[in-house]
């Protein structure tokens, strides 16, 4: 099942048939994992290039490659910063394309993934380009919703926290916009509301969305997707202090509720650890879903799925 | 031969039947190494998580995993320091448990290994938690004594240098305390004597131990285990200068002696390089013994030995 | 085809029969790569030890090892700097020799490769020792000339830029000096001319060499090997500014020319990006040739070729 693109740099590149194909292969990859892995990508090399460190994403990509029998060459941000003074991203991609079979790249600059993809002669997966895109996170979020709730069409999702700067919620909106009858409840402080470019997209896709300032409004949804609110986003520290408590999800909130709780991690307090033991808590399973999703993408983009 | 524990965080967790089982498997692993490795752990992934760098220990664990056909995902202290601001150790373990099959973790904080093991849903081996435990070092020391001297019961060992802060000598005392008729000679400056918690343990175990300030008292033992004396342990620099020479082992000391010289490495002068060529010098072989010991533990803790 | 030396620390160690043997095996390795790799070094471990970071060279060595089915343990400069305070290079080599089967080492100090090789009980390949040698770069340059031009005897090569401090051009001179009727045109600012030790060597080898200050003189050669001119080499910044433009190779220079353009990379402006699309531009293919050359060396030095 080859994908209709050579590189994956943005969630916006994906059509519904693409996400469905990827999720189908991810399910197969979960079966592969249950059997202890495969040799599908034996002899293939992933170049794991992290111009800024992200151990979670990096280890997830590397695990995915290894579970399929492939190998990994790695460079992280610290090595790059001292080394590539002066070399263009394009020249680095030309070089790496002669070593590896596929690239996963994280870079702090917006647009760097597209720039790199143009120069790469092997497939490239964007593993986050600064405030830009992080399509594999959006895909693993989508896969988690499907696994946890059994559906994507007709889902009702609350997004909580920093909806203005949060890259993951924007990308997930773009992917959920491909499905039918999806409803959104956006719960955030007024300083951190969902940007208009996203809500306009959802209007075009005929997705309903409402705004709220109250955490409780998310508890009756199918899914509550919580993100971190960062102190530095507020001009007035007192605003942050007031909001901090208001946006901390606890086990008490969830008593008797069926809502699935997701979080892109790392969390720093916005979900109390008391939630972890509840069946609602899907965020660690969500992190685990990064492996089959990335296995699916590696296999499909190397035309081996 | 499965071990009676899920995680290995402390040498104190080990009973004599455990150390004997591990040493038996380590001998088998030496045979595996002689044949160029095996595929016993093919498809398995070790997460090598070093919150503080220790290239020696890290490379030894990674070599052990690879010699058994397994694969390795790695993160070292520098990456962590910049990344995991704010994420709890427990959350990181939850995540990594969904990627890998077994964890080796080094962390600068005392008690971090137990904390991490509680959160991990896959086996965890403590590769050193600050001033706390480093059980695989103690096991490779034990294995070295057995290989070099042909016995553990009845061994007479001198421990030399910093016995107060030296994590490795404490752990080795705990393991040797499991054996019969073991005798200790503790050779150190008065500022750096073996702590009472260790000598009390040895008393309970009916191990004899004597104290000396003289390096020569170790030369008639079966084993002399030398450790580094660090200048910063002394209030008065003149004390350090006086002691420095007194505790440097040279080839002259060893003329006509049968004693086996060990050192956990790195050394910084306390064993003269002139000793390296003598048959007494076991410290590089000791470093090499880390590989079969860690192969044994990886295999046993994954129930594959 | 075993090589007549245990370690490879300098291009000067190589005789013509050695370079021919290595280039022959490299051609076989290109065929191996075309078939997707092999299992020739299965079960073997490369220790990739970079005391100073060089992602390009490190990833090339690691790729080479993996394409032959081998595995890699890695330590880079940043980890070393914080760790090995006080440990001698010799002790580190003793340790690593007990883990891995072969070492690739980059180190900032001149002469460190020879020092390390003496202590290592497994083969060591110098991946650059400061201002000293970098023999695998010289071999991949040689291989590139042979592949691009179909010959080495009788080749006419222009070397451009910093010929005084440029390690790569010196090593390449030493290797080309092994061949017949080789002619050199050295094009550099007067401040950065080829040192006498190299020109004397070429005289002994009966290689003709002429000096020029004009880039155009290189355009009628078989090969133009361009290197970076660094501003910090000039006492007078105005000299650098004047020269900068004079030594930038553009597509206009190459119109109608057959010359093969090489560069050890990274480049920082001395070859305009407009050159990249021309058939003359061999520098990215040159980088790629590092993989078969290093595969050949790894296999030969492990007696597996």
Commentary on this structure:
The structure is a homotrimer of 305-residue chains. Chain A is α/β, with parallel strands linked by helices. The first copy, chain A, has 2 domains: 11-133 and 289-301, Rossmann fold (3-Layer(aba) Sandwich); 136-286, Aspartate/ornithine carbamoyltransferase (Rossmann fold, 3-Layer(aba) Sandwich), CATH 3.40.50.1370. The first copy, chain A, has 11 helices and 9 strands. The first copy, chain A, has helices spanning 16-34, 55-67, 77-83, 89-97, 112-119, 135-149, 167-176, 196-204, 237-246, 251-254, 283-301, and strands at residues 45-50, 71-75, 102-107, 124-129, 156-160, 183-187, 208-212, 223-226, 260-262. In chain A, the strands form 2 sheets. Chain A has a 5-stranded parallel β-sheet with strand order 7-6-5-8-9. In chain A, α1 crosses α11 (283-301), α6 crosses α7 (167-176) and α6 (135-149) crosses α11. The longest helix of chain A is centred in the N-terminal third of the chain and has 19 residues, at 16-34. Chain A is globular. At the A-B interface, α2 and α11 of A face β2, α3 and α4 of B.
What's this model, at a glance?
Three copies of one chain form a homotrimer. By secondary structure, chain A is an alpha/beta fold. Helices cover 40% and strands 15% of the residues of chain A.
Which secondary structure elements does this structure contain, and how are they paired or packed?
Three copies of one chain form a homotrimer.
Chain A: H1 16-34, E1 45-50, H2 55-67, E2 71-75, H3 77-83, H4 89-97, E3 102-107, H5 112-119, E4 124-129, H6 135-149, E5 156-160, H7 167-176, E6 183-187, H8 196-204, E7 208-212, E8 223-226, H9 237-246, H10 251-254, E9 260-262, H11 283-301
Parallel strand pairs in A: 1-2, 1-3, 3-4, 5-6, 5-8, 6-7, 8-9
